[in-house]
């Protein structure tokens, strides 16, 4: 790939359109060396790898907005002219394949060449050069963070008040979306970070949090009786709520208090261990609205598949995450979820790690006698040896995965002109769970992002929809989209007056993504013992699955080492320059002067010195 993160990546608008085109064409790569088989010895065999990603299916993109021509429009800040192509009825702009997506460059490159992305409240009609501004990511009025948590930089970008009334949203043309395409950072996978989840703890412990900024999810929403409403979560929210009666407020607080320490009161749930959480809630003398809020917006679990204990655990996790960084349990990384893998890549690079883009691998080379993998051969015909090999599931061929049964994730990404629940403040990050119409069907998780998250242009919202697949993504998610949004299609023109209150969808894409999480290693055929398989994203809202998997693989390779240890303080790092200084001052017995190391040597040797010093 020519971008970081695989299926965890984020794209600008033009970058996403290029990704759509690539996945619709599904052409096999022919850029390979024909003589690579000559590198295989007699006592070796090969495990061929996929040349094309097959984890994305049923990609469909649509433009519902005022569709003026974008033929001669260039993305602001982009040098090459952008060609136009059709994508399932949508006119799109493909990015130059030789140019990396702006949000996927390094932090330095972004600061130098992509500064327009950081202007949250710039008029879309103005030129980029005249409006480059730096967003102040300080959270106004947010709770103070203790010293142990201060390593996590919680940013909250506040945009200027809207100049357009709520009743008359600003008309967004398709050419504007293309022109402002670099202000979009569109995630392939939609997730939030639990404030006391494994990923937040890992970001703080490893100090990788220095490379990222975060914004609070500001609202938890519910969809009930055809309407979107806000769910009170914290004690203050509950007692300030106007939608709950005083009796309901007492009921809710009593139940939430019980959930925090439910294990201390086993007599209250023991009889319902074999029941679903929904059935248990009906026995707690809760009103139907409270049951709905708890089940779908707080515990966020299935009505039919979740046991009582699992529901209580999910509710407690939600409550324990409240208040650490704000009045909801969730954080969202500025510039998108795709920033997270890049943050770890940056930390890795500081200590000599190398990340290669546009560098495909032909096969794994396996020793017939030992059964261990010895090397890989890349598309240049170069043989690269190593002791351990970590392979993402999508690289494994069908012969290796013939016994593997995959799940699928249905995804939709929308660009809209208004929020699903309009309030005085336009800068809201909201999470909404839409329950299924029919029992047994999955609920749909909706995450709505405002422009201050640096994921969309001003006067628009970026909406992610996710659920486990039962059909194609469009078949799974379009009914939910029609409930929440106005699509401006011919079929909806008859009911246009009823749709005025709904946000308008300007552009949308649907696709199915493979969920390879939870696959047992034994399901893969003939894998050498030193080859480790990691999965792509799962359908859960948080990131616990990925963190657990990374730590498990690391501990299998290096059982005596600490996973993602805190980096040393700068003053504790021993550099090669220190050795040279020692020699010059007469502390060394060697009269020879060492040659200045190359950058690669400096990086490698600096890392070794750090490890040795840490052990001491």
From TrEMBL:
InterPro entries: FAD/NAD-bd_sf, GDP_dissociation_inhibitor, Rab_escort, RAE1_2_domI_C. Residues 409-539 form the RAE1/2 domain. It holds the Pfam family RAE1_2_domI_C. Keywords: Cytoplasm, GTPase activation, Transferase. Its main location: cytoplasm. PANTHER family: CHM, RAB ESCORT PROTEIN 1, RAB GDP-DISSOCIATION INHIBITOR. Belongs to the Rab GDI family. This is RAE2 geranylgeranyltransferase.
